[in-house]
Write a structure and sequence with these properties.
The complex is a heterodimer of chains A (about 270) and B (about 260). Chain A has about 270 residues and is an alpha/beta fold. Helices cover about 35% and strands about 25% of the residues of chain A. Chain A has nine helices and twelve strands. The radius of gyration of chain A is 18 Å and the shape is globular. The two termini of chain A are about 35 Å apart. Chain B contains eight helices and no strands. Chain B has helices at about 1-30, 35-75, 85-120, 125-130, 135-175, 180-185, 190-215, 220-255. The longest helix of chain B has about 40 residues, at about 35-75. Chain B is elongated and about 65 Å long. The chains are: A alpha/beta (about 270), B mainly alpha (about 260). At the A-B interface, helix 2 of A face helix 4 of B.
Chain lengths: ~270, ~260
């Protein structure tokens, strides 16, 4: 079997004597998706930051593309981070830069001599913005955009460097249902057209349902039900106060007997 | 009590260690690729050109006040002709570097702390790291480099404008001729004075830039945290300027 794109092995993280993650283990294989569900403060966001080396675990190992990153220095981590895209919860766009400059940022500011050629930047930025259908907003500042548009710019910025893995931190939080659907469509579009591995943190079970059972259809430009044996597999992981309460497929989640998981599934 | 004192000490040592590490990485960044030259130029414009009006104003009035005070004292000894010497020495050695650095600290350490603090609380610094850039090289080193270049230049301007301010007072109120004033002003200045006067802003620049950036990058706790960091940056940078001023003066005076 191919090397997992991302693997957590008994990862523990403690903040000021509070256990944020407690012996969390999982694997995501290239091209697959992992949907991480959980209530607020269950450790979902810190899990993504650990995956990118923005935080270091107190115990356990994290492997990104087969390399152990949990003890790496900031400088050694940079080439690995350049292969990963991340969409932050509040988008984290650079508010003093225009939409164009935000999306161009990873191409022109990369360390280690891997910055794109100047002539190459504009076409790639426009292509990424076209992907999220925002090519008309290139000169706008983030403060002039709606919440949904900011998320779409954040997605464009995350994918412009053609990453192998994209991490989405609550990409639909605080959005209306139509905009949320648009965002999920873009996530699946990136997964199904570029074949990237996706880690999606969310508290909406509906998102997990869409990611598991639908695929992006480039002809209609919308989501259509996936085939019985889809090319991309989706696993669900439910976190409860930093611990893995459930890990498995959507069918297994429906049959799960754990009281917390059942309550989580029923309430959402 | 003992426990909380120990905690405070531990925290203070930790802050100093973190500050030194950030300073070390920012200084190393000056000699390491990639260099963000456009950011350095933008910061030189913000810190240098932006601070020019307040530096000119404070320099002028500091020189004018010095001339008034010095004349009053020197007149008692019948040495009012030495007003220019006293004004220029006081400005070049102390008032110019310290006042300029304090003004720039108030303006730019605060600015850096609030800008970087806002970026920290909105995850923009994490985003920068996630996008494969080192925030120290991108944010701290350009600010440090720009401050190192512009603070001595601003001090030279403040010194000159201050001596000019003194000359206005000397001409209109003390009735010294411009030749008398300016000759006595530059005649007593030797190389060691100028070296001391310029080494100060050079070293104060580290305090202004690094304290501002450190307070900004360590900001936690939303907008309230940004406000706290901004205040902390101005207070800490100002105190550090006075401590460094004492140490440098001691080094030059009793070398």
């Amino acid at each position: 079997m191919a090397t997992p794109a991302l693997e957590f092995s008994d990862v523990t993280l403690i903040f000021d004597n509070v256990v944020a993650l407690d012996r969390v283990s999982f694997r995501v294989h290239p091209g697959d998706s992992l949907v991480i569900l959980g209530a607020a403060a269950s450790g979902k966001s810190v899990l993504l930051k650990l995956a990118l080396g923005l935080l270091q675990p107190d115990a356990g190992e994290i492997y990104l593309f087969g390399e152990q990153i949990s003890r790496m220095s900031e400088a050694d981590l940079l080439p690995y981070r350049q292969q990963v895209g991340m969409v932050f919860q509040e988008s984290a766009l650079f508010d003093s830069l225009t939409v164009f400059d935000n999306v161009a940022y990873p191409l022109v500011n990369r360390d280690g001599g891997s910055a794109a050629e100047p002539d190459d930047v504009a076409p790639r930025v426009l292509e990424a913005l076209r992907f999220v259908e925002l090519e008309h907003a290139v000169d706008k500042l983030p403060s002039e955009l709606s919440g949904g548009m900011r998320r779409r710019v954040a997605i464009a910025r995350a994918i412009v460097g053609e990453p192998r893995l994209v991490l989405y931190d609550s990409p639909t939080a605080g959005l209306d249902p139509i905009t949320a659907h648009t965002i999920v469509t873009l996530i699946l579009k990136e997964r199904d057209t570029a074949g990237v591995t996706s880690l999606i943190v969310t508290h909406r079970l509906q998102n997990a349902h869409l990611v598991t059972n639908f695929r992006y259809d480039s002809d209609s430009g919308d989501l259509v039900p996936a085939a019985a044996a889809p090319a991309s597999r989706t696993e669900l992981l439910v976190l409860r106060q930093g611990r893995v309460a459930f890990r498995g497929s959507q069918q297994e989640l429906a049959l799960e007997q754990d009281a917390y998981v059942r309550k989580f599934v029923m309430k959402r | 009590m003992a426990f909380s004192l120990g905690d405070s000490l531990q925290r203070a040592v930790w802050v100093v260690q973190e500050f030194m590490l950030l300073g070390g990485r920012a200084i190393a960044g000056i000699f390491r690729r990639p260099h963000y030259w456009s950011d350095v130029l933008i910061q030189m414009d913000i810190i240098g050109v932006g601070s020019l009006p307040i530096v000119v104003l404070t320099g002028f009035f500091a020189g004018a006040v010095l001339a008034l005070q010095m004349f009053d004292t020197l007149a008692t000894f019948g040495a009012s002709a030495q007003t220019g010497t006293m004004v220029s020495l006081s400005l070049v050695l102390e008032m110019g570097p310290v006042l300029t650095s304090l003004m720039v600290a108030g303006r730019n350490s605060a600015g850096m702390a609030s800008e970087l603090g806002s970026m920290a609380v909105t995850e923009q610094i994490d985003a920068m790291r996630a996008l494969g850039t080192d925030p120290v090289l991108k944010l701290v080193t350009p600010r440090l480099l720009a401050t190192i270049v512009v603070l001595p230049l601003l001090t030279v301007i403040a010194d000159f404008v201050g001596i000019f301010g003194g000359s206005v007072i000397a001409y209109f109120f003390i009735r010294l001729t411009p030749t008398q004033y300016w000759t006595s002003s530059y005649r007593e200045l030797d190389f060691a004075d100028v070296a001391q006067g310029l080494s100060k802003p050079f070293l104060f620049a580290f305090s202004v830039a690094l304290v501002g950036c450190y307070c900004g990058m360590k900001t936690r706790g939303g907008t309230q945290g940004v406000g706290r960091s901004t205040t902390q940056a101005v207070v800490s940078a100002s105190i550090l300027i006075f401590v460094l001023d004492f140490l440098i003066t001691k080094l030059f005076v009793h070398a």
